[in-house]
Design a protein that fits this description.
about 270 residues, alpha/beta, Rossmann fold, 7-stranded parallel β-sheet, 9 helices, about 15% strand
């Protein structure tokens, strides 16, 4: 895919992988529509892009609010007349913890952002893509949507639901010029990523994850697990029990570490 002059709408664009992707896409000549709830950092990203000679429009966006979603898409279409790529990036993994110790509302909130947020954005953008004769929807998912991890049950379930939603839409749109893409970033040093103390060979930087996302678009990939995670998916396909065991060890160890970091100090006063 040639990125020059493509209108690309990114949700969750105020920080982390979303912001890094916006900057790299702008460097390749894309015209960016950046959406997020936090106005000041979002505007700062757009200003940085424009100061560097790129084009970016910041729009307020809450993917959990249908009216906010439609208003943001309407602004983008009024400005550019089309949306060539939608990147559903909004959301985070939340804090690690065991399901019975967490509030059920946390699970609902996870689905509200990741699943229903992606569905709202896709539903709002698809009519324009179909009318203009093509487009691409990139759903940012996770390796744990394919191989679930203990300690993040709600997040795993939400990402698995987005994967299933994407696959179903591929079937519905098979006769239309709209491509559905699944992109799984590696474990990345973002604010959300630091809440997951995973024992992995390497943790990636936002610019590296963004470069993988940009390459996914440029190379017309439909499915990509970046940072070597394709190996785990391959293992899961040939030996689900083996892959589950690996992820079980990683998840339980990380969850215990995370809970220990949150636990109050037990040392007596004055020691």
């Amino acid at each position: 895919m040639r990125l020059t002059d493509k209108v690309i709408f990114i949700t969750g664009a105020s920080r982390g992988i979303g912001a890094a992707s916006a900057r790299q896409l702008a460097q390749r000549g894309a015209r960016l529509v950046l959406g997020a709830r936090t106005a000041a950092p979002l505007q700062a990203v757009a200003d940085d892009i424009r100061d560097a000679g790129g084009e970016a429009l910041a729009v307020p966006l809450d993917v959990t609010d249908p009216a906010s979603v439609q208003a943001a898409v309407d602004v983008a279409l009024a400005r550019y007349g089309r949306i060539d790529v939608l990147i559903n990036n909004a959301g985070n993994g939340g804090a690690l913890g065991f399901l019975l110790d967490t509030d059920p509302d946390a699970t609902r909130a996870m689905f509200e952002v990741h699943v229903f947020g992606a569905e709202r954005m896709t539903r709002a953008v698809l009519p324009a893509m179909l009318a203009q004769g093509g487009g691409r929807v990139v759903n940012v998912v996770s390796t744990v949507g394919y191989v679930p991890m203990p300690g993040a049950a709600a997040y795993c379930a939400a990402k698995a639901a987005v994967i299933a939603l994407t696959e179903a839409l591929r079937g519905e749109l098979a006769d239309h010029p709209v491509t559905l893409v699944l992109f799984s970033p590696p474990h990345t040093q973002t604010e959300a990523g630091r809440d997951w103390p995973l024992d992995l060979p390497r943790t990636f930087q936002p610019d590296e994850a963004a470069a993988a996302l940009v390459a996914t678009l440029q190379r017309d990939r439909r499915d990509w697990l970046a940072g070597g995670n394709q190996t785990l998916l391959w293992l899961q396909r040939i030996s689900p029990r083996w892959a589950a065991g690996i992820m079980r060890g990683i998840g339980l160890d990380a969850t215990r570490k995370a809970l220990a970091l949150k636990a109050p100090a037990l040392a007596p006063p004055g020691t």
